[in-house]
Amino acid sequence: MTNMIEIKGVTKRYGSATVVDNVTMSMEKGTITVIVGTSGSGKSTLMRMINRLVPITEGHISVGGEDVMTVPATELRRRIGYAIQGHGLFPHRTVAQNIATVPELLGWETARIHRRVEELLNLFRLDPGTFAGKYPSQLSGGQQQRVGVARALAAEPEVLLMDEPFGALDPVIRGKAQDDLLAIQKQFGTTVILVTHDMDEAFHLGDRIAVMSGGKLLQCSEPEKILTEPADPFVQQLTGTSDRALKLMSLLPLKESMQPPRSGLGYSLPQSLNLRDALAELIWQGADEATVEDERKVPVGSISIQHLLELGRRA
Asked: Which pTM does this prediction carry?
Protein backbone atom coordinates (compact mmCIF):
# COMPACT_ATOMS: atom_id res chain seq x y z
CA MET A 1 0.00 0.00 0.00
CA THR A 2 1.15 3.54 -0.72
CA ASN A 3 1.16 6.25 1.92
CA MET A 4 -1.40 8.99 1.37
CA ILE A 5 -0.12 11.20 4.22
CA GLU A 6 3.44 11.59 5.49
CA ILE A 7 4.16 13.55 8.67
CA LYS A 8 7.89 14.08 9.27
CA GLY A 9 9.38 15.72 12.35
CA VAL A 10 6.36 18.00 12.82
CA THR A 11 6.37 20.44 15.74
CA LYS A 12 3.95 23.16 16.76
CA ARG A 13 4.89 25.85 19.27
CA TYR A 14 2.90 28.73 20.69
CA GLY A 15 5.56 30.98 22.19
CA SER A 16 7.51 28.81 24.64
CA ALA A 17 4.78 26.12 24.79
CA THR A 18 5.30 23.04 22.56
CA VAL A 19 1.89 21.60 21.68
CA VAL A 20 3.07 19.00 19.12
CA ASP A 21 6.60 17.71 19.64
CA ASN A 22 8.59 16.23 16.71
CA VAL A 23 5.93 13.80 15.45
CA THR A 24 6.66 11.44 12.57
CA MET A 25 4.02 9.05 11.22
CA SER A 26 2.35 7.99 7.97
CA MET A 27 -1.16 7.02 6.91
CA GLU A 28 -1.70 4.44 4.17
CA LYS A 29 -4.08 5.16 1.34
CA GLY A 30 -7.62 3.87 1.93
CA THR A 31 -7.21 3.26 5.68
CA ILE A 32 -8.58 4.80 8.88
CA THR A 33 -6.04 6.15 11.36
CA VAL A 34 -7.44 7.17 14.74
CA ILE A 35 -5.45 9.63 16.87
CA VAL A 36 -6.25 9.28 20.58
CA GLY A 37 -5.09 11.01 23.72
CA THR A 38 -6.31 13.01 26.67
CA SER A 39 -7.29 16.66 26.45
CA GLY A 40 -4.26 18.79 25.59
CA SER A 41 -2.27 15.91 24.11
CA GLY A 42 -1.88 17.72 20.76
CA LYS A 43 -4.04 15.34 18.72
CA SER A 44 -6.41 17.96 17.21
CA THR A 45 -3.55 20.41 16.58
CA LEU A 46 -1.62 17.72 14.69
CA MET A 47 -4.63 16.92 12.51
CA ARG A 48 -5.35 20.59 11.76
CA MET A 49 -1.81 21.03 10.50
CA ILE A 50 -2.61 18.55 7.71
CA ASN A 51 -5.06 21.01 6.09
CA ARG A 52 -3.13 24.06 7.35
CA LEU A 53 -5.84 25.31 9.69
CA VAL A 54 -2.90 25.47 12.11
CA PRO A 55 0.52 26.60 10.75
CA ILE A 56 3.45 24.18 11.07
CA THR A 57 6.36 25.47 13.20
CA GLU A 58 8.85 22.79 12.11
CA GLY A 59 8.78 19.69 9.92
CA HIS A 60 6.92 18.67 6.78
CA ILE A 61 3.53 17.16 5.90
CA SER A 62 2.73 15.76 2.46
CA VAL A 63 -0.63 14.63 1.10
CA GLY A 64 -0.62 12.43 -2.00
CA GLY A 65 3.13 13.03 -2.35
CA GLU A 66 2.72 16.82 -2.38
CA ASP A 67 4.07 19.07 0.41
CA VAL A 68 1.06 20.88 1.89
CA MET A 69 3.07 24.12 2.09
CA THR A 70 3.43 24.20 -1.72
CA VAL A 71 -0.36 24.15 -2.26
CA PRO A 72 -2.44 27.31 -1.67
CA ALA A 73 -4.33 26.82 1.61
CA THR A 74 -7.79 27.36 0.10
CA GLU A 75 -7.12 24.83 -2.68
CA LEU A 76 -5.73 22.32 -0.17
CA ARG A 77 -8.82 22.59 2.05
CA ARG A 78 -11.13 22.02 -0.89
CA ARG A 79 -9.28 18.77 -1.65
CA ILE A 80 -9.45 17.51 1.95
CA GLY A 81 -12.81 16.81 3.58
CA TYR A 82 -13.23 18.09 7.14
CA ALA A 83 -15.92 17.08 9.63
CA ILE A 84 -16.07 18.36 13.20
CA GLN A 85 -18.08 17.83 16.38
CA GLY A 86 -21.27 19.87 16.15
CA HIS A 87 -21.12 19.42 12.35
CA GLY A 88 -20.58 23.15 11.58
CA LEU A 89 -23.55 23.28 9.21
CA PHE A 90 -24.57 26.67 7.80
CA PRO A 91 -27.90 27.39 9.56
CA HIS A 92 -29.41 29.48 6.74
CA ARG A 93 -28.56 27.01 3.96
CA THR A 94 -30.68 23.96 3.23
CA VAL A 95 -29.33 20.43 3.56
CA ALA A 96 -28.75 20.28 -0.21
CA GLN A 97 -27.02 23.68 -0.22
CA ASN A 98 -24.82 22.66 2.71
CA ILE A 99 -23.68 19.49 0.93
CA ALA A 100 -23.12 21.41 -2.32
CA THR A 101 -20.84 24.02 -0.71
CA VAL A 102 -17.43 22.78 -1.88
CA PRO A 103 -18.54 21.50 -5.33
CA GLU A 104 -19.98 25.00 -5.95
CA LEU A 105 -16.67 26.60 -4.93
CA LEU A 106 -14.89 24.23 -7.32
CA GLY A 107 -17.16 25.30 -10.17
CA TRP A 108 -18.90 21.99 -10.77
CA GLU A 109 -21.79 22.04 -13.26
CA THR A 110 -25.22 22.32 -11.63
CA ALA A 111 -26.39 18.92 -12.90
CA ARG A 112 -23.29 17.22 -11.49
CA ILE A 113 -23.82 18.90 -8.12
CA HIS A 114 -27.46 17.77 -8.02
CA ARG A 115 -26.42 14.18 -8.81
CA ARG A 116 -23.76 14.19 -6.10
CA VAL A 117 -26.10 15.66 -3.45
CA GLU A 118 -28.77 13.06 -4.27
CA GLU A 119 -26.21 10.23 -4.22
CA LEU A 120 -24.91 11.24 -0.79
CA LEU A 121 -28.36 11.76 0.72
CA ASN A 122 -29.39 8.28 -0.45
CA LEU A 123 -26.12 6.83 0.84
CA PHE A 124 -26.77 8.27 4.30
CA ARG A 125 -30.39 7.09 4.19
CA LEU A 126 -31.80 10.62 4.05
CA ASP A 127 -34.55 10.64 1.43
CA PRO A 128 -33.76 13.55 -0.96
CA GLY A 129 -37.44 14.41 -1.38
CA THR A 130 -37.82 14.78 2.38
CA PHE A 131 -34.49 16.22 3.48
CA ALA A 132 -32.91 18.21 0.62
CA GLY A 133 -34.97 21.35 1.35
CA LYS A 134 -34.81 21.18 5.15
CA TYR A 135 -32.65 23.45 7.30
CA PRO A 136 -30.21 22.16 9.97
CA SER A 137 -32.52 23.28 12.81
CA GLN A 138 -35.19 20.91 11.48
CA LEU A 139 -32.90 17.86 11.79
CA SER A 140 -32.10 15.59 14.72
CA GLY A 141 -28.53 15.41 16.04
CA GLY A 142 -27.89 12.17 14.17
CA GLN A 143 -29.25 13.60 10.92
CA GLN A 144 -27.10 16.73 11.30
CA GLN A 145 -24.06 14.52 11.83
CA ARG A 146 -24.77 12.58 8.63
CA VAL A 147 -25.20 15.79 6.65
CA GLY A 148 -21.91 17.08 8.08
CA VAL A 149 -20.04 13.99 6.89
CA ALA A 150 -21.87 14.08 3.53
CA ARG A 151 -20.76 17.69 3.05
CA ALA A 152 -17.16 16.71 3.86
CA LEU A 153 -17.33 13.96 1.22
CA ALA A 154 -19.17 16.00 -1.43
CA ALA A 155 -16.18 16.93 -3.61
CA GLU A 156 -14.90 13.33 -3.60
CA PRO A 157 -11.82 14.06 -1.47
CA GLU A 158 -9.12 11.40 -1.15
CA VAL A 159 -8.60 12.45 2.48
CA LEU A 160 -11.21 13.04 5.20
CA LEU A 161 -10.24 14.65 8.51
CA MET A 162 -12.66 14.14 11.40
CA ASP A 163 -12.27 15.92 14.75
CA GLU A 164 -14.42 14.26 17.46
CA PRO A 165 -17.23 13.95 14.87
CA PHE A 166 -19.47 11.75 17.04
CA GLY A 167 -18.76 13.35 20.42
CA ALA A 168 -22.13 15.09 20.75
CA LEU A 169 -24.22 12.03 19.88
CA ASP A 170 -25.88 9.73 22.39
CA PRO A 171 -24.33 6.23 22.63
CA VAL A 172 -26.92 4.43 20.47
CA ILE A 173 -26.78 6.93 17.61
CA ARG A 174 -23.01 7.16 17.99
CA GLY A 175 -22.56 3.43 17.39
CA LYS A 176 -24.73 3.63 14.27
CA ALA A 177 -22.80 6.67 13.00
CA GLN A 178 -19.53 4.77 13.43
CA ASP A 179 -20.88 1.83 11.44
CA ASP A 180 -22.08 4.23 8.71
CA LEU A 181 -18.58 5.70 8.49
CA LEU A 182 -16.97 2.27 8.15
CA ALA A 183 -19.36 1.28 5.34
CA ILE A 184 -18.95 4.55 3.44
CA GLN A 185 -15.17 4.63 3.86
CA LYS A 186 -14.99 1.11 2.46
CA GLN A 187 -17.18 2.08 -0.51
CA PHE A 188 -15.20 5.21 -1.45
CA GLY A 189 -11.72 4.07 -0.35
CA THR A 190 -11.21 7.40 1.40
CA THR A 191 -8.18 7.85 3.66
CA VAL A 192 -9.60 8.90 7.04
CA ILE A 193 -7.83 10.52 9.99
CA LEU A 194 -10.12 10.71 13.01
CA VAL A 195 -9.36 12.34 16.37
CA THR A 196 -11.10 11.06 19.51
CA HIS A 197 -10.56 10.65 23.24
CA ASP A 198 -12.73 7.49 23.23
CA MET A 199 -10.63 4.31 23.13
CA ASP A 200 -13.63 2.09 22.32
CA GLU A 201 -14.28 4.27 19.27
CA ALA A 202 -10.61 3.99 18.30
CA PHE A 203 -10.67 0.18 18.48
CA HIS A 204 -13.94 0.02 16.55
CA LEU A 205 -12.82 2.26 13.69
CA GLY A 206 -9.05 2.24 13.41
CA ASP A 207 -6.86 0.24 11.06
CA ARG A 208 -4.10 1.93 13.04
CA ILE A 209 -4.24 3.81 16.34
CA ALA A 210 -1.86 6.68 17.18
CA VAL A 211 -1.57 7.47 20.90
CA MET A 212 -0.43 10.97 21.89
CA SER A 213 0.44 12.52 25.25
CA GLY A 214 2.03 15.87 26.02
CA GLY A 215 2.46 16.59 22.33
CA LYS A 216 4.49 13.44 21.69
CA LEU A 217 3.51 10.39 19.64
CA LEU A 218 3.92 7.42 21.99
CA GLN A 219 2.85 4.64 19.62
CA CYS A 220 1.26 4.17 16.20
CA SER A 221 0.26 0.56 15.59
CA GLU A 222 -2.51 -1.84 14.66
CA PRO A 223 -5.18 -2.16 17.40
CA GLU A 224 -3.97 -5.64 18.38
CA LYS A 225 -0.43 -4.37 19.00
CA ILE A 226 -1.69 -1.43 21.05
CA LEU A 227 -3.31 -3.99 23.35
CA THR A 228 -0.67 -6.72 23.39
CA GLU A 229 2.54 -4.67 23.01
CA PRO A 230 1.93 -1.22 24.54
CA ALA A 231 5.06 0.87 23.95
CA ASP A 232 4.61 3.04 27.03
CA PRO A 233 2.91 2.79 30.47
CA PHE A 234 0.55 5.59 29.41
CA VAL A 235 -0.59 3.55 26.39
CA GLN A 236 -1.29 0.61 28.68
CA GLN A 237 -3.21 2.85 31.08
CA LEU A 238 -5.23 4.43 28.28
CA THR A 239 -6.35 1.08 26.87
CA GLY A 240 -7.34 -0.15 30.34
CA THR A 241 -6.31 -3.38 32.00
CA SER A 242 -9.50 -4.94 33.36
CA ASP A 243 -11.15 -5.51 29.98
CA ARG A 244 -8.02 -5.89 27.86
CA ALA A 245 -8.82 -9.54 27.08
CA LEU A 246 -12.36 -8.70 25.92
CA LYS A 247 -11.08 -5.85 23.74
CA LEU A 248 -8.55 -8.16 22.12
CA MET A 249 -11.22 -10.83 21.63
CA SER A 250 -13.35 -8.25 19.79
CA LEU A 251 -10.55 -7.93 17.22
CA LEU A 252 -10.17 -11.68 16.61
CA PRO A 253 -12.48 -13.39 14.07
CA LEU A 254 -14.34 -16.52 15.11
CA LYS A 255 -13.57 -18.26 11.81
CA GLU A 256 -9.85 -18.35 12.70
CA SER A 257 -10.40 -19.96 16.11
CA MET A 258 -13.03 -22.62 15.33
CA GLN A 259 -12.86 -26.18 16.53
CA PRO A 260 -13.76 -29.12 14.22
CA PRO A 261 -17.47 -29.53 13.32
CA ARG A 262 -19.60 -31.57 15.74
CA SER A 263 -23.03 -32.97 15.06
CA GLY A 264 -26.03 -32.70 17.34
CA LEU A 265 -25.42 -29.17 18.66
CA GLY A 266 -28.67 -27.30 19.18
CA TYR A 267 -27.44 -23.78 18.53
CA SER A 268 -25.50 -22.13 15.68
CA LEU A 269 -23.44 -18.96 15.20
CA PRO A 270 -22.34 -17.19 12.01
CA GLN A 271 -18.58 -17.36 11.38
CA SER A 272 -18.59 -13.58 10.73
CA LEU A 273 -18.71 -12.90 14.50
CA ASN A 274 -15.67 -11.93 16.54
CA LEU A 275 -14.71 -13.96 19.61
CA ARG A 276 -16.21 -11.51 22.11
CA ASP A 277 -19.58 -11.49 20.34
CA ALA A 278 -19.54 -15.30 20.03
CA LEU A 279 -18.95 -15.60 23.79
CA ALA A 280 -21.74 -13.12 24.51
CA GLU A 281 -24.16 -15.05 22.26
CA LEU A 282 -23.40 -18.40 23.92
CA ILE A 283 -23.83 -16.93 27.41
CA TRP A 284 -27.07 -15.19 26.36
CA GLN A 285 -28.48 -18.41 24.90
CA GLY A 286 -27.32 -20.55 27.83
CA ALA A 287 -25.48 -22.84 25.41
CA ASP A 288 -22.13 -24.50 26.21
CA GLU A 289 -21.28 -25.11 22.57
CA ALA A 290 -22.51 -24.13 19.10
CA THR A 291 -22.12 -25.01 15.46
CA VAL A 292 -20.37 -22.34 13.38
CA GLU A 293 -21.94 -21.69 9.96
CA ASP A 294 -20.78 -19.81 6.87
CA GLU A 295 -22.93 -17.24 5.03
CA ARG A 296 -24.82 -20.07 3.26
CA LYS A 297 -25.73 -21.62 6.64
CA VAL A 298 -23.37 -24.55 5.96
CA PRO A 299 -21.67 -25.91 9.12
CA VAL A 300 -17.93 -25.23 8.97
CA GLY A 301 -16.88 -25.78 12.60
CA SER A 302 -17.90 -25.52 16.23
CA ILE A 303 -17.04 -23.38 19.24
CA SER A 304 -17.45 -23.91 22.99
CA ILE A 305 -17.55 -21.50 25.91
CA GLN A 306 -14.60 -23.36 27.45
CA HIS A 307 -12.48 -22.85 24.31
CA LEU A 308 -13.46 -19.16 24.10
CA LEU A 309 -12.51 -18.60 27.74
CA GLU A 310 -9.15 -20.29 27.14
CA LEU A 311 -8.58 -17.99 24.16
CA GLY A 312 -9.55 -15.02 26.32
CA ARG A 313 -7.05 -15.99 29.03
CA ARG A 314 -4.29 -16.26 26.41
CA ALA A 315 -5.27 -12.81 25.12
From this structure: 0.76
